[in-house]
Amino acid sequence: MQALLALSRGIDAINLRMGRAVSWVTLLVVLVSAGNALVRKFFHISSNAWLEMQWYMFGAMFLLTAGYTLLKNDHVRVDIIASRLSRRAQVWIEIFGLLFFLMPACLLIMYLSWPVFMDSYLSNEHSSNSGGLIRWPVKLLIPVGFALLVLAGLSHLIKCAGFLLGRCRDPREREGAKSAEEELAEEIAREAQAREAVAVREPDNKGR
Q1: pLDDT of residue 169
Q2: Residue 172 DSSP one-character state
Q3: Helix-then-strand count for the chain, H and E
Q4: Distance between terminal CA atoms of the chain?
Q5: DSSP string across 114-126
Q6: Are 91 and 160 contacting, i.e. CB atoms less than 8 angstroms apart?
Q7: What are the entry keywords (predicted)?
């Protein structure tokens, strides 16, 4: 089990580095998008290459960080029923989902997307738009992104087994920060409390 947990830590390190690297791509997308908008607005100049670069990077942001998202437990969970079960039962459900849903779907997409990438690479496919970019790099993002997600799923599976054996903590726990769903729920609750406070004050003001 220790060897598997070491493998899990190695996989996590890969996805962690990928997530940090792609965070810089996010900044680059913002700069390129703003630059394109300004050039079109003030100089009436447009470039298909720069426009396509935007959606290349946009695709990289989502595809290459899927594994990082799973690592950080930032994916959406619908635990209406599972949340009522014991922690061990929830982890068993997690294992079932990984083995019968996540992993098969990711492996199938990798299998189907690889020939598409190879055809594009061997033919040196270019965009049909004037001045557009070559196509195979963006098509390579699909199998690579899902390969990273498969690795993240394998790491998560190892940690789930480790938790059931008492070798590691629950892999579904987040490290300190609250999830986006929790933050949204708290924001909705604060807004509801603010509306209630306003509703209580209004009758008092009218009475005066």
Answers
A1: 82
A2: T
A3: 7, 0
A4: 72
A5: HHHHHHHHHTT-B
A6: yes
A7: Cell inner membrane, Cell membrane, Membrane, Transmembrane, Transmembrane helix, Transport
Structure tokens of 130? 């004037």
117 in Cβ contact with 63 (< 8 Å):
no
Mean pLDDT of the chain: 85
Please give the structure tokens belonging to residue 30.
Answer: 């913002």
Residue 19 to residues 25, 44, 157, 178, 180, Cα–Cα distance (Å): 10, 36, 20, 18, 17
CA–CA distance from 165 to each of 91, 142, 154, 162 (Å)? Answer: 12, 35, 17, 5
Reported residue count of the chain is 208
Find the largest Cα–Cα distance for the chain. 81
The separation between CA 31 and the C-alpha centre of its own chain, rounded to angstroms, equals 21
Residue 207 has pLDDT above 60, yes or no: no
Look at residue 150 and tell me whether its pLDDT is greater than 60.
yes
Residues 6 or more apart from 25 whose CB is under 8 A from it?
Answer: 57, 60, 61
Does the pLDDT at position 91 exceed 60? yes
